[in-house]
Structures are given as C-alpha cells and as structure tokens.
Write a structure and sequence with these properties.
With 236 residues, the chain is an alpha/beta fold. The chain has one domain: 3-Layer(aba) Sandwich (Rossmann fold), CATH 3.40.50.620. The protein is built from eight helices and five strands; from the N terminus they run E-H-E-H-E-H-H-E-H-H-E-H-H. Strands 3-2-1-4-5 form a five-stranded parallel β-sheet, sandwiched between helices. Strand 2, helix 2 and strand 3 form a beta-alpha-beta unit. The longest helix has 16 residues. It is globular and about 50 Å long.
C-alpha cells in the first residue's frame, strides 16, 4: 500500500487501473498517476448512486488526461439499500465539521469500496497491471470505515493471496496518495498538476446543476478550497 506523495520513483511505472468517480479526489489521483508516467485505465462504477451525474464528469476528466481506456460499468446496489446515496433515506445536510466524525453517516454505502476495489483488481489482473490507484481519504472524509488505512492494507493482502500475480510474487500495488492528506493539500496538488476542477462533481444531490452547498461532500469541498486559498470554479 502506497500512501506517499505523487512525486516518486518512476522505475516501476507501467499499466495501472484508476478508480475514477468524477469527483475531486479521484480526478486528482488520475492526474498524479499520469504525471508519474503510468499508462492509465480508468474505471467508473455506477452502483445506483443518486448522483450518477458523476459518470459524465468522469468521462470529461478521463478525456482530459488521455487515459488508455475508460470503462463505465454498472453494478446496482440499490436492491440492498442501507444508504441514502442509493435512495434509502435522506441525505444529511448542514452537518457541522464536528458531526462528521461522531458517527458513520447514512451516505455510507455498505461494502462499496470492497466492491469497487474488487472490480478494479479484476481488471488490473486481466491487464497485467502493476497498480490500482484510488482516491480514498481518511482525514477529510465523512467517517466512512472503508476509507481507513487498515482497510486498504487488509484488502491489499487479500489481493496478494487471491490473485495469480500475487502467487507469482508480483502482487498488485494499491496506491492511495491522498489517504492522509487534507482537502486543501489535495486541491493544491491537483491545481499544480493541471486538474480543472470545473470538470468534477462532488455534490451528493447533483443532477448536473449547481452544487447544493449543504451536503457533507459540498461542505468538505468548500472547506478545502477555502483553506487552499483557491476559488472553486464550480462557484464562479
């Protein structure tokens, strides 16, 4: 598991799968991977989320960074429920920063990152890719348990044990360079790497119009841009 800075040793650069939602974090990660010289294959998963407008954002970002291939795949988690992001309950609005870490919010989608990482792992092994990049973040998150370093470390070990590459001593690396970064640090990195954040979508309730400004994701994004000292182009 790699949680370091995007400026790293380029000796191991090859093919990589990048989980790309079309949001701020995953778009920054794609820019980092491309800067390091990886041949990127972007994977966007439509899992029944209420803000499926993310897919259009992901296509814009993938096109801007010249990925080798961009796949949009569907796996409908709405049948399981358990999350306001798949239409089960109300999406929280207006929560304070202090409330973000007190409990796991209704926007947590049961096992979502396990499912997404499994799909990315399968494609990575089929491509004989050496890495999977993802934009999870433990600091400025909403308290999701599958955005923690321990989760990613455990999944990487599962992947090592359960894949041909792992059995051959060539395990796939899981790279989460934003894991321990604040939103402000992420935005500064992305801006330096040429990410046009006007292409991205963060709002949990967006249908393509202006962000709501009140959901957890909007509030975290606003906090990040304010602390980075950079105007959010979506609000220009």
């Amino acid at each position: 598991m790699d949680t370091g800075a995007p400026i790293g040793d380029r000796a191991d650069v090859g093919r990589a799968v990048v989980l790309l939602s079309g949001g701020l974090d995953s778009s920054t990660v794609l820019a980092m991977a491309r800067w390091e010289g990886w041949i990127c294959y972007a994977l966007t998963v439509l899992y029944g989320q209420t803000h499926a407008v993310e897919a259009a954002a992901a296509r814009r970002v993938a096109g801007a960074f010249g990925v080798a291939e961009h796949r949009v795949t569907e796996i409908d988690l709405r049948g399981w429920g358990g999350s306001s992001l798949v239409g089960d309950g109300e999406i929280p609005r207006g929560r304070s920063e202090g409330e973000f870490s007190r409990s796991i919010p209704s926007t947590y989608v049961p096992a979502r990152n396990t499912v997404l990482l499994s799909l990315a792992l399968a494609w990575a092994e089929a491509l004989d890719a050496g890495a999977v990049f993802l934009g999870i973040n433990a600091l400025d998150s909403s308290g999701y348990p599958d955005c923690r370093p321990d989760f990613l470390k455990a999944f990487e070990e599962t992947a090592r044990l359960g894949t041909r590459r792992g059995a051959e001593g060539r395990p796939i690396s899981f790279r989460a360079p934003l894991l321990n970064k604040t939103k402000a640090e992420i935005i500064r990195w992305g801006a330096a790497l040429g990410v046009d954040y006007a292409m991205t979508v963060s709002c949990y309730t967006s249908s393509g119009g202006p962000p709501c400004g009140a959901c957890d994701s909007c509030r975290l994004r606003a906090k990040g841009f304010a602390e980075a000292g950079i105007p959010d182009p979506l609000l220009a």
